[in-house]
């Protein structure tokens, strides 16, 4: 029987599943997004039983950080005091007691590992490996269901837009795979629900399994859906897109849950027929409740250590942001014991000759710093990499448009790329030919003869690639193929799309005001970012999250074309935004694997502009080299002399560290951070509240860039603390499925999150799992007002999914704790604990 209670239970169970984006446009996602109405620790502790994984770093990691000096004693004492206010369990009173309790807990966990058995497939016949087989079978059916012409023959039910539950019931009538694995009653179970909806089937199965209480039902369904969490996230993605565009969809996550439950019901019946003991679900739940009470002590310990690590990071950052310029202090690199020397603050020229706008992505921090240090006439700023262009864009060579904006937003405009007239015919002919040969390569018979018959056609491409690699070997900078425009017309796609002049002016004005641009240098470079890698299924995860998992070159080109338009400038001047005639906007791309900056569409007939561009290219080359060297030294113990080879090496599993190490977000004037070595650990968004009269820009920062940064941060967090559940596994074992995901090996669940090689160098983790620390320089009352007016932001802040810190005009920093802002006393602590105690003893 379906009632409101069951509806709520299913919805609550499925909250543990967040969407994951396809491989073509991978977007970093907070895997706990739908649980944000609960506190961070409460949500993670409830998920540990369902996922069979610890979602906070093991205690031994924190003990090593304390010994190495990464966690300060002052921060640990504050964390102990905080925990004493909220914990109902007895906690240690001193640091020594905490260390002793933590060591005892480590020994206890090693001697008595506990795993709750919460599904029938796991409880019975472990030698038959039913649970693993069921996961593989669910993956097989889901892969066929989501196939979009990758296979020559697809499922009729998928083509007819039937739900997954209906599709599976049709296919399972003929699929005898589980019969061969000993589960002979599966098809009989499926037949019983031939006319039932997924929700009706779930209700019947919960009743037969005698799972009645709300807690039991939610936990049981959570366990089942997390065994196929990768496929569940892909279902959730389709639901997310439908909700974002306000369209209907036949793809529902609960269909997958119903299918997974039928497999479990078949296991239950099979076990009873074999006269085995019925799985004691009630006992498992009771044991879980007891374990939860017993583990309050362990949970408190882990929460104390996590807070202490975050406080230590915040204390060091606070010192730097308050103008500390001693060469003895700097923000440490994630996963590294080293403390690079801090450079002194520099103010920059009054009238810069070049202004470079970067994405707030943490990888731009190093490059911005080196650019400013190399030439005091350069000014940089940080802004979301889609540059305020909320567009869906379709390239001439692509079958469908792609959204070039944050995943939280829906596109406001739809634009198409148009080839120059003389190339239209050639382009259509080439696209048709390539499509034809791709189909030949996939066909059952012609695929065996494809290389022998048509391999010679790849000769030109091979020669061009070798020539390009040879030029790079001799130090010649070559614009990567993916950023070349091939003669396409980027000048005015807005008119072709029917976007009015008034809308274009509004787009341009919004971008300039949100970027806080109040003075205009002769050369303004809009630098989106993207990566170039080879044989990398997760290549788009290294691109721009603000651009929807694509490179930011298109958005930079679109905004540059607007701001260079004389008619647009004239209309902007009427609105009080006067751009000097000598100012030119140039699109660029920051290639993040090699830290090179490439100017795009930089052809000019003016000698003055050519000189500016030449000067810019020289400065970019020097800054890129310096940033490359620093990044390698801070992120790996084995730097390479030729980082360009990483980008084009098919065997390279670590071409780039991506956003590893991210831990903070700063929205403040550049004068607050200029010249400070933040070691690539902060998202830097330029913001000056004194020029934000209505605080709409502050609202935008708190509701969009900050939330996106939190998504990235928590994806890295989850992929580090629980790689077996929320990580994408080993790159060397990946096999792509369709065009939307990978499996590890030859089947099973989709792997979500980040590959293990993205957070681990083979010997140690290079990412330190800390919640995002957000530093905002703005009036405290305005920040509090915006937080309280936006439910999602309020949940993130109140639930401690991130830390909110406010910088006042004097530079003092306050941390928001339970609606109270407390002063942060920045401390620099470099000596390891053992060394300090030896010194104190002497």
From TrEMBL:
Cofactor section: Zn(2+)
Membrane topology listed for this record: Peripheral membrane protein
GO molecular function terms listed in the Swiss-Prot or TrEMBL record: zinc ion binding
Basic residues bias (residue ranges): 634-647
Function: Part of an energy-coupled inorganic carbon pump.
PANTHER family recorded: INORGANIC CARBON TRANSPORTER SUBUNIT DABA-RELATED (PTHR38344:SF1), UPF0753 PROTEIN AQ_863 (PTHR38344)
Protein name: Probable inorganic carbon transporter subunit DabA
């Amino acid at each position: 029987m379906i009632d409101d209670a069951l509806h709520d239970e299913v919805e609550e169970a499925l909250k543990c599943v967040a969407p994951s984006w396809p491989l073509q446009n991978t977007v970093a996602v907070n895997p706990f997004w739908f649980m944000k109405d609960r506190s961070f620790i409460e949500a993670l502790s409830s998920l540990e039983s369902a996922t069979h994984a610890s979602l906070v770093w093991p205690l031994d990691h924190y003990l090593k950080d304390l010994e190495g000096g990464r966690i300060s004693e002052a921060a640990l004492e504050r964390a102990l005091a905080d925990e004493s206010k909220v914990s109902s369990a007895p906690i240690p009173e001193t640091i020594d007691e905490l260390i002793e309790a933590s060591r005892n807990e480590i020994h206890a966990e090693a001697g008595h590992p506990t795993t709750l058995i919460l599904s029938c497939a796991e409880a019975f016949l472990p030698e038959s490996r039913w649970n693993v087989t069921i996961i593989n079978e669910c993956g097989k059916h889901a892969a066929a269901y989501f196939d979009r012409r990758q296979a020559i023959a697809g499922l009729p039910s998928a083509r007819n837009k039937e739900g997954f539950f209906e599709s599976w019931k049709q296919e399972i009538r003929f699929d005898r795979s589980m019969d061969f694995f000993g589960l002979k009653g599966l098809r009989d179970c499926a037949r019983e629900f031939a006319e039932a909806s997924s929700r009706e089937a779930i209700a019947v199965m919960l009743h037969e399994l005698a799972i009645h209480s709300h807690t039991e039902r939610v936990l049981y369904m959570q366990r089942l859906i997390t065994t196929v969490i990768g496929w569940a996230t892909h279902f959730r993605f389709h639901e997310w897109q439908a909700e974002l565009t306000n369209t209907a969809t036949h793809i529902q996550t609960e269909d997958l849950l119903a299918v997974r439950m039928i497999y479990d019901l078949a296991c239950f019946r099979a076990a009873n027929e074999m006269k085995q003991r019925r799985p004691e679900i009630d006992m498992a739940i009771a044991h879980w409740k007891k374990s939860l009470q017993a583990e309050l002590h362990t949970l408190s310990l882990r929460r104390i250590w996590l807070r202490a690590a975050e406080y230590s990071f915040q204390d060091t950052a606070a010192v730097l942001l308050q103008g500390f310029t001693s060469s003895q202090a700097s923000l440490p690199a994630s996963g590294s014991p080293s403390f690079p020397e801090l450079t002194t603050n520099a103010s920059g020229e009054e009238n810069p000759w070049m202004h470079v706008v970067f994405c707030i992505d943490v990888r731009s921090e190093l490059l911005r710093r080196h650019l400013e240090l190399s030439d005091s006439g350069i000014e940089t700023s940080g802004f979301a990499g889609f540059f305020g262009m909320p567009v869906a864009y379709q390239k001439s060579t692509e079958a469908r448009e792609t959204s070039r904006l944050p995943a939280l937003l829906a596109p406001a405009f739809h634009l198409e790329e148009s080839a120059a007239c003389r190339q239209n015919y050639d382009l259509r002919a080439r696209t048709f030919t390539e499509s034809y040969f791709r189909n030949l390569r996939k066909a059952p018979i012609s695929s065996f003869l494809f290389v022998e018959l048509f391999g010679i056609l790849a000769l030109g491409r091979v020669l061009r690639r070798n020539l390009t690699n040879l030029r790079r070997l001799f130090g010649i900078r070559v614009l990567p193929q993916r950023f070349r425009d091939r003669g396409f017309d980027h000048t005015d796609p807005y008119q072709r799309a029917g976007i009015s002049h008034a809308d274009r002016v509004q787009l341009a004005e919004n971008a300039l005001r949100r970027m806080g641009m109040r003075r205009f240098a002769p050369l303004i470079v809009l630098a989106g970012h993207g990566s170039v890698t080879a044989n990398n299924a997760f290549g788009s995860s290294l691109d721009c999250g603000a651009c929807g998992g694509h490179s930011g070159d298109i958005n930079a080109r679109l905004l540059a074309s607007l701001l260079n338009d004389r008619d647009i400038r004239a209309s902007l001047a009427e609105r009080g935004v006067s751009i000097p005639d000598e100012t030119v906007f140039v699109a660029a791309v920051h290639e993040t694997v090699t830290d090179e900056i490439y100017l795009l569409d930089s052809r000019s007939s003016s000698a003055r502009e050519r000189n500016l561009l030449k000067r810019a290219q020289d400065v970019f080359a020097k800054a890129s080299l310096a940033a490359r060297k620093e990044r390698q030294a801070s992120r790996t113990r084995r730097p390479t002399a030729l980082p360009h080879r990483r980008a084009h090496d098919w065997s390279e599993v670590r071409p780039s560290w991506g956003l590893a190490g991210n831990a903070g977000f700063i929205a403040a004037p550049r004068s607050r951070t200029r010249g400070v070595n933040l070691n690539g650990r902060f998202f830097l968004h330029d913001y000056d509240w004194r020029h934000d009269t209505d605080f709409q820009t502050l609202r935008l920062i708190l509701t969009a860039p900050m939330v996106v940064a939190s998504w990235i941060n928590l994806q890295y967090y989850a992929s580090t603390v629980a790689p077996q559940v929320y990580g994408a596994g080993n790159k060397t074992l990946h096999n792509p499925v369709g065009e939307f995901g990978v499996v590890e090996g030859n089947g099973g669940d989709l792997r979500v999150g980040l590959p293990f090689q993205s957070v681990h160098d083979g010997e140690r983790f290079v990412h330190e799992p800390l919640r995002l620390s957000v530093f905002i320089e703005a009036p405290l009352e305005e920040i509090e007002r915006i937080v309280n007016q936006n439910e999602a932001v309020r949940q993130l802040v109140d639930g401690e999914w991130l830390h909110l810190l406010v910088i006042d005009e004097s530079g003092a920093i306050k941390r928001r704790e339970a609606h109270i802002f407390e002063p942060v006393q920045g401390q620099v602590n470099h000596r390891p604990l053992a060394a300090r105690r030896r010194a104190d003893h002497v």
